[in-house]
Structure formats: C-alpha cells, structure tokens
Design brief:
By secondary structure, the protein is α+β, with helices and mostly antiparallel strands. Strand 11 (about 205-210) and strand 12 form a beta hairpin.
C-alpha cells in the first residue's frame, strides 16, 4: 500500500523525519519496504510503501497507520470526526434498504446527497490519489476512493435515479445472494455469470452491483447524475474471496474486505465521503441515514494476566504501563491498578481489531508498543536432559525408512477433501468413509470434509503425476484420518497408504516387457517387508471386498483376528475417474493397530553352519478360503517344529478330472535345518510325517503323488 507522507501527517503530531517514522512502523509490524519520491509538476511528496500481513486489515488505510504509529511512538493523534449538517427531507423518504442475506452482509449504510454536479475533482485530491497509485476519474468516484484510502472502508456511489423503485417511490436496495446462472454486467463492461455464493446489491428487478467487488454498468454515476446514493457496507470476507477468486476480479475493495473491514466504521466513512462530495461536487446531504445492521456483534473481552505477560516476554513491565499501552491502541481496560502480580485486566477489543482474540494476542500488542528492542535478552534455563523420540515416533521414523528402501516417495496431502472425490472412489451412499465432519463454510471450493481415508489424496497425487507424463509411480503417505464421535471431537487414527503403478525398476533394458509392470505381489511384498521390519508377527492375508478395488483382486490384511486394512488392484472405473494410464495397486492400513503389535527389538538367531535338507510337498485340498496357502503353511510350521526353517508355496494346480471337483493342488518347498548338527534322513522323514498328518487332520489334505 502506498501512503503519502503529507496525508499521514494530517492525523499525527510528529516532529521527526519520515525515515524515523518508517523505521518505527517497520519494527512494530507495519513494514515499510521503501520510501519513494512522487512528483507531478510542482507537487512533490514522500510515499511510504508498506507491506502488511493478512490479519492486519486495520492498517490498510492512512488513518489506521496514523493510529498505529501514534500508539507505538507515544505521540498525539489528531481527532477525526467528519461532520456535515444535513439539509432537506430525510434520506429514508427516497431510499429503502433490505438485507435478505445477513451472513453475506451484516451491515449496510446508505446516505443521499442531492443536487451534485459531476466533474473533475480538485487538484489537491488528484495529487494525493496519484501519489497513492490511484487514477483520478471524477469528483464523485474520487471521493469514494479517497475515503477508502483514508479510512480503509470501501465505498460505492450509485446514481440514485437508476435503481428501480418500490411501491412508495423510493429507490429500493436489496442485498441478497445471486441466483444460479444470473448474469451481471460490471463497470468494466464484462458480463459475469454468477452463482449462489455471490452476494449482490440489487433493486427489485436486477443486480446493480457485485457486493464488495465492483459496481454495475446499470447504476453507474455519469455526467447527468444529480443525486448520489453512497453505499458503505460490511461484507463477509470468505464469500467475498470466493467471488473474487472465481471471477478473477481482484480490486482494492476486495483486498480490504477479505482482510475484514471494521463493521462499526461504515457510517463514519459514509459521512466523510458525503462531506467531500459536497465540498467538491456541491449538493446537499439529506437528513438522517438508512442504516440496516442485523449482524451486530458484542465486543470481544479478553482477560490479561500481567505476570503471565512478563513471564512470556522476559520483561518487567508494570501492570499500569500495560494498561496504558493497550489504551493507546483504543482498547478499553478495566482492572485493579498495581505494579505486578496475578491481578488480571479485562480488555475490550475494538471492532477494527478482529485479529485480537486471546491473551497471547494482547501480550504481542504490549511487546509492540513497548518496543522489542527494550526487552532485555535472557539466557534459557539449563536443560536437564535431551529430548528423545517416543516409541511411536521411532516406529514412524523406522516405517518411513522401510518404505523408502522399497523405492517409494512420500507424499503429503490435505486433510480436507472434496466429498465428490468419494464418488470417484466408487463408494456407496452408506460407506463409512462418507461419515465425515464437514465445514459449513469452507475457504476453498469443494474442500469441506475432514477425511476418513487416505485414498483420495494418494490417487490425486498419482493423477497429477500421470498428467505430467510420469508413468512409473511409487508413493506412500503416513498421516491421520478423523472419525466422528457424536458431538465431541473426532477420533484421530494414524494410517499408512501405499500406491504403485507402472514399473518399480529403475533400469529395465534387459527385462522382458511383461515383467516390468507392478502387480499385486509387488504391493504385497512392500507391505510385508514393512511389517516385518517393524517386528509385526501374525500377519495374514485373506480375500476381501471393497468398492474401490477390482472384485476378486482385493485382500484384507489382518493381525490375528483384527483387520488392519485392504490392499489390491484399483477398480477399472476408479482408475478411469482418476485418469490413470496403467493399473494401480493401493493399500491402506491402520498404523495404530500395527504399532500395538510392533516389537522394536528382534531376537537374534545365528545362521546355521550346517546344510539344509530340502523337500517338496504337493497336497490336494478343497478350493476354499479355509484352505488358503497361508493357513496350510502356518499348520506346517507348527507341526514341523524348530527343525522346519522355511515354508514357501511355489505352484497351484487345478484339474477337476484328475483331482476331483472343487479341489486344487498346492505345492510347497520345505527347508529343514539345525544350528547344532547335520540332520539325518530319519529326522527329516519324521518331521515330514508330522506335517502331512497335521494337514490331513486339520484340512483333510492328501499328498499328491
């Protein structure tokens, strides 16, 4: 923001230099990036170019900066109370205002100036506007821009004869939401297609302005204008930002409304504008005003503990001094006087400071006014012991190492998701993932749900990579999901998601094409390596069903009897929704349960120096979930005892004519080994007999010759 120094001096009793003032403003948070020199003929001025954080909308005006500078410098601020005697019939005889959307517009103030003559603004006003970086247009428009720069309140001037009239012949102003598909031609002669999130200023027939953004061509002040309706309103920052971003209309008004304009300042700004219009364009101010204020809020009161403030600042500021600092900032302070102690102060925050909500905010304001350079440097106390990671934190670090060693890259996605992405996942209406906490008003279009699954973010990340022609994708995410708990805070669950697509090989010039692409077993290997690396035992894989996965290609992962998630191939329709060119395989697992079963320490077992005895065993069982390869292998390990070092399935054979209807043959490779001696044939044969007997007893399995 460009602030002419001469303009700033209108409200500030200051004998120092502009450079000293700029330095002090920068130290107190209203950063002055440079001091420029503006010249126009004989006129010359120094201009402070300020840079502000988004929460300090109160500093987006000349008067706001003067108010802040006076408080931090401890100098006098000149009073400012525009006053103009009204003349003629009351304004409410010619103007009627209705607020149909009190959320979008909590307050709307209208004044009427009759008998103006539109023409150029005076030279002094043009010079100040030019120095501030604004282009002079006409005396009426220049007055609204002048007051916006002076007081931070965006204004708009209508030709009072153009809005349609109500039944009593009054110009009727209606503040409402736009109708979906409603069209509006703005002052820049562009037609805008509106949505129901847009707030408009309308008459009984049509929209005449886009609230807080730009006026309409159908109510513009022109050379023939005689009566001027001054609009000074407060509009919702979130809705204003949505409209501005969607339509690509960033104006000085939207810049201020999005940073919250003082709702209590609309009338003062309108009176100041009327005063300038009468001075520069003639006319008379109608008696009274039309001020509709359905969204009035009670002032915020915050408690301040002086001893707490001193403890945080490392300073020794008396409570009376703190109260004086806050009063300089136009805050009302109540409480017992005294040097220090726990006696609290009650501070009422002015309406132009919505960023002050908590005690720590007041402490920051005290530090700013006191001057950070006056707060002594202190040495932190002695740290008794170094901070260490908790067991869960160490497990998360270990898991990241394991997943990276498998060739995966970490992705971090937003915790807020668009509920429409759950449709893309193919989830039915009663899916648990749809039971989310949602925002009533979100700042980003569509991002309104607090996620219960990591899958949307992972698939969107894969979609982004695919759009950038990255065919080989290997991603993981470790983050929280949120499960609603009635009316209380949601339960947070830590989860891990894995996605692979394309090839996992870095160099594949000598690899057959059919061996390049990722598949379910590659995904399963990544998950199993990670679980084994965390020391998790008792993991089993069983056929599962999930709407996001391809039927028959989804596995449920369990630890004992507890399900920890699903893994498998993404369904074809989901793959198409996310525009993925190759088959994608994903897994999402519950880390809370995994960490409950993780063992940070592993039992060391030395390698045997003696050779292993290898046996192959093909058994015939019924083709059912109960006779899975994992279940058969677990029974073999239990029956084989310590001598059975490894069991691996290597073949499945199905032939109803040779094996019987509903049966299949699964072949296993068994490795018998001892760390103490070379095993004899008799020992191996006895172990094999125990294995086959256990299989026959538990599964009805027969050995296939």
């Amino acid at each position: 923001m460009r602030v002419p120094y001469s303009w700033l001096r209108d409200y500030l009793v200051w004998d120092g230099s502009v450079e000293e003032l700029a330095h002090r403003l920068t130290l107190s948070g209203a950063e002055v990036e440079e001091i420029a020199v503006w010249t126009d003929g004989e006129a010359e001025d120094r201009v402070l170019c300020t840079k502000l954080t988004a929460n300090r909308g109160d500093l987006l005006s000349v008067y706001g900066l003067a108010r802040h500078a006076a408080a931090t410098l401890g100098v006098e601020r000149l009073p400012f109370d525009p006053n103009l005697p009204p003349v003629g019939p009351p304004a409410e005889e010619d103007i009627a205002v209705e607020i149909a959307d009190p959320i979008g517009c909590p307050r709307y103030t209208a004044l009427l100036v009759r008998g103006v003559k539109v023409g150029p603004s005076p030279r002094w006003m043009q010079e100040r506007l030019l120095a501030a970086g604004l282009r002079p247009i006409s005396n009426i428009v220049d007055c609204t821009n002048y007051v916006m720069w002076e007081l931070g309140q965006p204004l708009h001037a209508f030709d009072a004869a153009l809005p349609a009239k109500d039944g009593q012949g009054r110009a009727k102003i209606i503040v409402r939401r736009a109708e979906p598909g409603e069209r509006f031609i703005s002052l820049d002669d562009q037609e805008r297609l509106l949505q129901d999130t847009d707030v408009v200023i309308a008459d009984p027939q049509q929209a005449i302005a886009l609230a807080g953004v730009m006026g309409g061509a159908n109510s513009e002040v022109g050379e023939s204008t005689v009566d001027v309706l001054i609009e000074s309103a407060h509009f919702d920052p979130v809705l204003n930002r949505k409209t501005s971003l969607r339509l690509g209309m960033e104006t000085e008004a939207t810049y201020r409304f999005q940073r919250t304009v003082d709702p209590e300042g609309t009338l003062r700004a309108a009176r100041r504008c009327a005063q300038l219009i009468v001075e520069t364009a003639g006319g008379e101010l109608a008696a009274g005003e039309v001020d509709v204020y359905p969204g009035r809020k009670a002032p915020i009161t915050v408690s301040l503990r002086p001893d707490r403030a001193n403890a945080i600042l490392g300073a020794d500021i008396p409570a009376d001094t703190m109260a004086e600092y806050l009063r300089r900032l136009d805050m009302a302070v109540e409480g017992p006087a005294g040097e220090h102690g726990a006696a609290g102060l009650r501070v009422t925050v002015p309406s132009f400071r919505p960023d002050v909500e908590r005690e720590i905010d007041l402490i920051e304001e005290i530090a700013i006014v006191h001057d950070y350079n006056r707060i002594p440097a202190t040495v932190p106390g002695v740290i008794d012991e170094a901070a260490t990671l908790t067991e869960r934190q160490r497990l998360r670090v270990r898991l990241r190492e394991l997943l990276r060693s498998s060739g995966l890259c970490e992705t971090i996605n937003l915790t807020m998701i668009d509920p429409r992405d759950l449709d893309r996942l193919g989830l039915p209406a009663d899916a648990p993932e749809r039971q989310m906490l949602t925002l009533q008003r979100s700042t980003e279009e569509g991002l309104s749900g607090l996620r219960r699954t990591l899958l949307p973010g992972l698939l969107q990340a894969a979609e982004h990579n695919a759009n950038q022609r990255v065919a080989d994708i290997a991603l993981y995410e470790i983050d929280r999901v949120f499960v609603p708990q009635g009316n209380g805070a949601p339960a947070e669950r830590l989860q891990v998601g894995v996605l692979i697509a394309g090839s996992l090989l870095n160099n594949r010039w000598n690899v057959p094409p059919e061996a390049e692409l990722a598949d379910f077993y590659a995904l399963k290997g990544i998950v199993q390596d990670a679980l084994e690396g965390l020391g998790v035992s008792g993991v089993t894989w069983a056929p599962g069903a999930h709407p996001t996965f391809r039927p028959g290609h989804c596995a449920e992962v369990r630890i004992g009897e507890a399900s920890i998630g699903y893994a498998g191939e993404v369904a074809a329709q989901v793959q198409a929704e996310f525009s993925l060119p190759a088959k994608a395989y994903v897994a999402e697992l519950d880390l809370e349960t995994i960490f409950d079963h993780a063992t940070p320490y592993r039992l060391y077992r030395p390698l045997s120096r003696y050779p292993a005895a290898l046996r192959d065993l093909a058994i015939v069982v019924y083709d059912s979930d109960a006779c899975s390869a994992a279940a058969l292998a677990a029974t073999m390990r239990e029956a084989g005892g310590e001598l059975l070092a490894a069991v691996e399935p290597f073949d499945v054979f199905v032939d109803p004519q040779r094996l019987g209807e509903g049966k299949r043959s699964i072949a296993f490779s068994l490795s018998f080994q001892s760390v103490e001696r070379t095993l004899t044939d008799e020992e191996v044969n006895e172990a094999m007999a125990r294995v086959t007997e256990a299989l026959a007893r538990q599964f009805g399995a027969t050995v296939r010759e």
